[in-house]
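Protocol step 4 of 6: structure prediction from sequence.
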Amino acid sequence: MTPLILLPGLLCDAGLWAHQTRHLSDIAAPRVADLSQDESVEAMAARVLAEAPPSFALGALSMGGYVAFAILRAAPHRVSRLALLDSSAWPDTHEQATRRKILMQLAQRGQFKGVTPRLLPLLVHPDRIAEQPLADEVMAMAERVGLDAFLRQQRAIMTRPDSRPELGRISVPTMVICGRQDALTPLERSQEIAAGIKGARLAVIEECGHLSTMERPQAVTALLRLWLTG
């Protein structure tokens, strides 16, 4: 059975991948990595690699994609196939880094509230905001991850390198998935990744925002099943 390591995004944990870990367990051995302990994508990647089997399939969403690129830089021979969801190969722009620093300052002054209803429109499709179970789980994940990990993750995201020059060196079977209405990492970023990796397949999920694994879990799981079975 294929070992499958899944990498969550900022302020996300195993809840991000709940449907996939449950419904892919007949063809893979999924495990969600902990990306809450380190302050750089390289350190996150090193922790994942230290706990991983010699070879594994790698799925990653958003910040997890930045860590996936770091894993591929450090140990490309260990990744058997790659799935990148709602992510980007770009480094932070100056404007993005500035916004992160402001959020970090607010959080350090005692104003950390994780994901609030005000931030949900950046994470899910506008039509899903009123769905209370989805909103509650997104906010609960953020609370579980907590303030200290939020600060570490933001530092890691701000200091990540530009991964665009490395896309052409990725040679494993790759699927790129993106919600059509992703407001945080727009579809163009996924299109760029898919175009840069030889043989990569791009799948666009309609009526879906940034957290595709939770918003359209059946669609994502079906796509990952195709990816895992070749």
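Step 5 (inspection) to follow. The two ends are 14 Å apart (CA to CA).
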